[in-house]
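Section handout 9: paired folding examples.
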Amino acid sequence: MKEPIENLWQEVRDLSLGSSTHIDQLSSPPTPLQFLRDYVSPNKPCLISNAINHWPATTLWHSTPYLLNTLSYSSVSLHLTPTGKADALTPHPTTSTTCFASAEVQRIPFPDALTRVLESDPNCVGYLQQQNDCFRSEYGPLSHDCDPDFTWASEALGCLPEAVNLWIGNDLSETSFHKDHYENIYAVVSGEKHFLLLPPTDVHRMYICPYPAANYRYSQDTGEFSLELEEPVRYVPWCSVNPYPSPELKEKKKAKFPLYFDGPRPFEVTVKAGEILYLPSMWFHHVRQSPDSRGLTIAVNYWYDMRFDIKYAYFNFLQSLPHSMLCNAASSGNLLVESQRHSSMGNSGEESSITASASDGLLHDSNDAAEK
């Protein structure tokens, strides 16, 4: 089974995506027909220039006083982590179990939140990343600075955006590999975003496993974080691969996740200020960012509902193939032991069936919660 799956990875690139690590770049927005025919239907990403030049945001948001004044009476959701990695895997400090860690979320006035982002350090990183249509709710006073949708995308997809989100962060924030069930139009207003992309056909290379959910807690008194496992235990299927392991762990991670490190290279995309990335549904993506001269990276993304068509059925079939059929014995054994350790922590009901499935195969993502 391993050889046909590996052939699939290569054929997708040969027939549709190309053999390089770059994606198509368009110098202007596509027509609805071109967008649907050349990118949505084949589930193919592209980078688009000159699509948001007319937005007031492209000039106004480079002024910090403008942001502070416009949102002076707004309360927003600030996400805090000790590493800049929210919705990511980390070892629990007391049990050493790898868990899925979510940020501490504080609802505070925007001026205070922006200060926390700008004054972040490697031990306490602030990120404004609430999602859930936050641009039209928490950041409503800024909504007139951007278009409510992209007409060429809305016409091609046959709907308006389900949600619009604002992201304000710094160079310390990083988003782990994950996928979303949305067609994503991602516009960078300030700074740069650096994406690694893998198509849905590469699902086995992500080594998706269930991890117990945990939440960071931040103490204002001590300035320190704790990490608390959720009770009752809840498991989150998540990608196990970190594409940038530390030098001392690199060889160990390459041996543990050979399908990723020995397979085709990910597509690499830098989205600069004023550019748009079309990120198709179900594509795996990892995100880093570079700030502007103020230390900020600002982006707005538009989630459009995906079509649950035959491509989705194909993906679910591919995802259901047992991971053990592709991995070598050592790698499969490591993942099996890890899944069994999670199972012994007291899961029940649906969580039990999820963990059992991961021991033999891959999973459907239950909560796609990260940079969309």
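Moving on to protein 2 of 2.
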Amino acid sequence: MERAVRELWAESRDLLGLGSPSPDDTAAATASAVPRADLPPTPLAFLRDHVSPGRPLIVSAAATRHWPAATLWPTDSYLTDTLRSTAVSLHLTPDGRADALAPHPRRPSSKCFASAHVRRVDFPAAIELIRGSDPAAGLVAYAQQQDDCLRGEYAAVAGDVDAHVPWASEALGCLPEAVNLWIGNAHSVTSFHKDHYDNIYAVVSGEKHFLLLPPTEHHRLYVRDYPAAHYVAEEGGEHQQLRLKLEMDEPGRMVPWSSVDPCPASPEEMAAQAAAFPLYFDGPAPIRCTVRAGEMLYLPSMWFHHVSQSPGPNGLTIAVNYWYDMQFDIKYTYFNFLRSLEFDDCSSGKADALEEGDPEEKND
């Protein structure tokens, strides 16, 4: 079974024109880059060459050059002045890893799925906390609300970007279900997950760094059930003195999530990860791409992605994403069939890798 699945990984990448370099083949990994376009595609070309086959695409800054946000948002004062009286949802973690695995607070040798502590603060205070984020101090702030927030709590600046992406809307036959604004710094990292949306991701300031795996490589991420937990703020002190602790959800629930950390912090952790998850670390290198300020990434639905970021000159990484509801067609059926295939390397552990719900979904 494993040999057949590995052949599927290679064939699917070849059909997408992305190649299957080994983890140690840096030159080949660089060559198997996500396609880039100097100009936005026509709706027909986008549908034919990217949506239908499920192939990512990066579009140059020509796609957003007309946005007022392209020049206004990277400045030091525009967003703070415009949103001065606006309360926003700020996600707080001790280490910048929200919706990710963390040591279980009662059984440190085990893992749990940890969600951020969310606090409503005025926008200028939110920016101050984001800029001052420091894992060494136990507090990292990220504006990453997941509820169409650009058209909600950030409505005062929503007109600075397009309400939708015209060539994508025409090709996909619908308008975006949600448009979100993300503001963070280099300390915020998004763990491997997938979404049931076609995603158009536009960076306005700084850069976003993606590790990508096609849906066919589901088994490589060792998706297992983890008990859910959330960070809470301990009483006392102002925002600057907030201390966070992890508590288990009550009533308890389980969350299917990727077990793999592709960027361990130490050689010892890398060795432990590689030993525990050989399908990831011994398989083809993940597809890497960087989306720079002004550029757009089309990320097809069901693609697994891990995201880190670098701030711009203003000390912030700012992005907007458009979520288009995916088509639950024959490709989704094939994915569920593939997910139902079990072999020993990825089925051991606390929970089965074969979850019938909607696992590893998150925003970036």
